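Researcher: Please generate the 3D structure of the following complex. Treat every line as part of one assembly.
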Amino acid sequence: MQAIPGSSGPRWSVDDVAYDQIDRAAIVDQLDWFYVVTASSFVEILSDLYARNLGDYYAGDEDACAWLAHKWGPEEIQHGEALKRYVQTVWPDFDWQRGFDGFQADYTPYCQTALLGPTRTLEMAARCVVETGTASFYAMLRDASPEPVLATVAGHIRDDEIGHYKGFYRFYRDYQRRDPHSRWRVTREIWRRVVEVDSEDAFLAVKNVSVVHKPGAVFTREDFRAFRDRIRAWMRVHYPFQSAVKMLLKPLDLPGPLQRFAIPLIVGGVRRIV
Ligand SMILES: [Fe+2]
Ligand SMILES: [Fe+2]
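Model: Done. Output below.
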């Protein structure tokens, strides 16, 4: 197998980030940003659990396991650490650990090897969907951020997520060569994961931020929907729809003319849905 792109250690470190230069006044009162950054730090920092799950699922595939353990997992955890430190710098009164402990307890039961894709090939395609989602999300945060240091952190994370996509895509191609799956089957798996992207982890992460931030208040699905609608307003302006759709379609290996026809059509549809 060829070398995985970007497999030569992290390109940046939490210690490079200028936390002492944060323009606190630009963000400290923006509650939605507090919730988004804190919830993201919870999800990312739990990555050693996802990395273990994936490592179990791909047991015996030495290349994939080495990349997951030494490149992908540590980078995802670093995303969590960088965001956590941002939260603790800007909102020092928030008990980050208590929020995270609640999230970990709520979310761990959803995180099982049994819930991964039906085949190794399809799980690699599904991982491309997840990394498309995270790369696009952090591109949006980078461009929408009211505070420059957060924009820099989000930019570093976005670049890593693109690297993860490329890594999983390379493994996917390799599995497809050895164990081919029809375009239809891959489409169904990609669709299933696109629909799932909005599932439990985001709700539980935001809920556990709220539990600590507003003691005694109950965080409902309705509260979460209202929060999500406000984030959609950012998406309309800053979400990179075009590149997200291109990345999603890439594993389908569509013929060039069909791809040129499909991309603007899907981008238009997705924009309308958002
Ligand atoms: Fe990440
Ligand atoms: Fe990632």
